[in-house]
């Protein structure tokens, strides 16, 4: 499959994507555990069906030392016993933040409170920014049919 747009070869597209990618790097530098960052990115990408991002975040998580068992269980995290309470809170926040159109109230107070129990304000800001960024990145990739499978860990960092 060929992508509809060449994100890195077309100068016009690059004008938009370079600042967008810089925002992603800034978000990644915020004080959120790397494992949480990758698990959230992976779960948002699974929900949105973004194969490119699923490929990327699986490989980035593996490179950072994440286990294959945990990566395989992200889609079924509620029933899996391998995630901490903090990770569960982040994954629930990611799901509700991604599926805002499915719930009349967006992220409910109980989910926010669970996340706030485990993360300070700076980390919550990082989570919210990460969820929003991943949703935007997923849409860019899905709309333009970016192919998956060839990503190498560190390629975009």
TrEMBL record:
- NCBIfam families given in the database record: ahpD_dom
Spell out the Pfam families in the cross-references: CMD (PF02627)
Q: What is the lineage of its organism?
A: Bacteria, Bacillati, Actinomycetota, Actinomycetes, Kitasatosporales
Instruction: Specify the superkingdom.
Output: Bacteria
Where the record annotates domain Carboxymuconolactone decarboxylase-like, the positions are 16-95
Q: Name the Gene Ontology molecular function terms of this record.
A: peroxiredoxin activity
> Where would one find coiled-coil regions in this protein?
none
Q: What is this protein called?
A: Alkylhydroperoxidase
